[in-house]
Write a structure and sequence with these properties.
The protein has about 525 residues and is of the alpha/beta class. The chain is about 45% helix and about 15% strand. It contains 17 helices and 17 strands. Helix 16 (about 490-500) links the parallel strand 16 (about 480-485) and strand 17 (about 500-505).
Length: about 525
């Protein structure tokens, strides 16, 4: 199937000049877009939008009856809040004022007439690609919420809180592959667009997708199915970033924030993303509690060295209504919440306690009705573990000569993302849908590297590795595992025993590139030392 046949998306063309409408219609049809609607009367746009439901609107700015800015105002009233239906303004008015008015009214992009036809098609394609990513991310978020709701109800009905860890880990594991697709496409889009409007939209999608990834990993850590991703963390920086994330909500809620951060804090060996999640949860809870209290609404966050030992302390105090004693005893229990139905799952503080305890710390609460609430967290100061090298500031040098990589994954979307990322770096790639298919390809030709999923039908990654060990022993130094299966303890032990690099889904493409380059450089180094590495 050629590229034009793959064009999808409903496009509404609005221009009072029939000749312009015909030109745009022919241009889009030539580019493969077939679902088109058009009008030369701007008064018809609202009705057409409600019946045609376009994915993108091409809108003239200077029109009789209703100009483009007025039409944008109408569209804003019917497009659901949070939805992304891009509007590309095409106008002969090239003034800065016209551009500012259009963008302020809700336009997503702006082109002045006369325009280059290839640029119009490129802008449309980028906007539609962004919309598809946005819709996919929204679907995944709704799926996550629905899955958590269903599994939570099942757990509550069974009254077996002890199964919560497996439940959350199962939810997280099921989302690894689809989240890998969303994050991968978002990162690829960021690397291809140059238009600042589209780039900002791609960055927002990428940020939201990464947040979903962090939530999944926090679930796994709570379920004791994934170790925290430790590194050197500045606690004060985590505090500032959490407050910055919630700054708008706190400001509009008339909450003043006071930071009393000790400047001499030692560096923590911790998972910064997880600690960030703890801060966000507690601050958000404090904000919600203070919404129902009078002035002053004040949040005070204090950090310092704990005199009780080699640990740091973090206190989050609010001036809310306080917590009665009978509720204080339950707030860290899974699924306990005082919020109305639909406003909370009761998992937030349970997640916080799991994360803090996973770091070897403690979390407690001090509160009295009418006296506000203070959460106190203590975290141990641990040295970098022996054998863990400091981050390598210098990137591995590029391997010499063209390199060929075999990507083995039964998920075609994930394989396609890896292929596109690798080919952008100049590698030649080939794909196999399972281990048996990979072995057939390895018999026909040699590869410099094999990237393999671990869980596949017919022959999985572990069987593939063992067959390669038997039939192509030199390739043992040329394999990288990619896996989303974090629940199988036996598989985890096997992967650790091989010493093979492992990329966990959802992966970061920057990390994929780094690991691939390092593996190729190490292989070349072995060859230079006289080790046998060719198949």
């Amino acid at each position: 199937m050629n590229e034009q046949a793959l064009r999808t998306g409903r496009i509404l063309i609005v221009d009072d000049e029939p000749a312009n409408v015909r030109l745009l219609e022919r241009l889009l049809q030539g580019a493969g877009y077939t679902q088109l609607e058009k009008t030369t009367d701007s008064r018809q746009v609202l009705a057409l939008y409600q019946t045609f439901h376009p994915d993108l609107v091409l809108l003239d700015l200077l029109m009789p009856h209703l100009d483009g800015v007025a039409v944008l105002g109408q569209l804003r009233s019917v497009i659901p809040s949070g939805a992304y239906v891009p509007v590309l303004v095409l106008t002969a008015d090239a003034t800065l004022d016209a551009k500012q008015r259009a963008l302020a009214a809700g336009a997503n992009d702006f082109l002045t007439k006369p325009f280059e036809q290839f640029e119009v098609v490129l802008r449309i394609r980028n906007l539609l690609d962004t919309r598809r990513l946005y819709l996919e991310l929204d679907r995944q978020n709704r799926s996550l919420e629905e899955t958590v709701r269903e599994r939570t109800e099942r757990l509550l009905q069974s009254e077996k809180v002890a199964t919560m860890g497996s439940l959350l880990a199962g939810v997280a594991h099921e989302l690894n592959n689809p989240l890998a697709v969303v994050t991968g496409h978002a990162q690829l889009l960021r690397g291809t667009v140059s238009d600042p409007v589209v780039l900002r939209r791609a960055e927002k999608i990428d940020e939201a997708a990464r947040r979903c990834v962090r939530i999944v990993r926090n679930f796994l850590a709570l379920a004791r199915r994934r170790a925290p991703e430790r590194g050197e963390v500045q606690l004060n920086q985590v505090v500032r970033e959490a407050v910055e994330l919630l700054a708008y909500e706190l400001k509009t809620g008339n909450v003043s924030v006071s930071l009393a951060l000790a400047e001499d804090l030692p560096v923590l060996w911790a998972d910064g993303h997880q600690l960030h999640q703890v801060l966000v949860n507690i601050v958000a809870n404090a904000h919600q509690a203070m919404r129902h209290s009078g002035s002053p609404r004040r949040l005070t966050i204090t950090t310092g060295r704990d005199p009780a030992g080699p640990q740091v302390s973090l206190a989050i105090a609010d001036t809310g209504p306080g917590i009665p004693a009978e509720i204080r005893a339950k707030i860290f229990e899974p699924f306990f919440t005082t919020k109305p139905p639909g406003e909370g799952t009761g998992l937030g503080l349970s997640l916080c306690r799991g994360i803090v305890e996973e770091h070897g710390g403690t979390i407690g609460v001090e509160s009295e009705p009418g006296q506000g609430t203070t959460f106190l967290i203590r975290l141990p100061v641990l040295p970098r573990p022996a054998g863990v090298a400091a981050p390598d500031a210098a990137e591995a040098p590029a391997p010499a000569g063209p390199k060929t990589i075999l990507v083995v994954d039964d998920e075609s979307e994930i394989a396609a993302i890896l292929v596109e990322a690798l080919e952008r770096d100049g590698y030649q790639t080939e794909t196999a849908e399972n281990g048996a298919d990979a072995l057939r390809r390895l018999e026909r030709r040699g590869f410099d590297l094999v990237m393999s999923d671990t869980k596949m039908p017919v022959m999985d990654g572990i069987e593939l590795y063992r067959e390669m060990e038997r039939r192509f022993p030199a390739l043992q130094r040329r394999i990288i595992f990619v896996t989303g299966d974090v629940l199988d303890a036996e598989k985890q032990r096997f992967l650790e025993s091989t010493g093979v690099p492992v990329l966990t889904k959802p992966f970061d493409l920057t990390e994929v590139r780094r690991v691939v380059r390092r593996r190729l450089v190490d292989t070349a180094s072995d060859a230079a030392k006289g080790l046998r590495v060719s198949p």
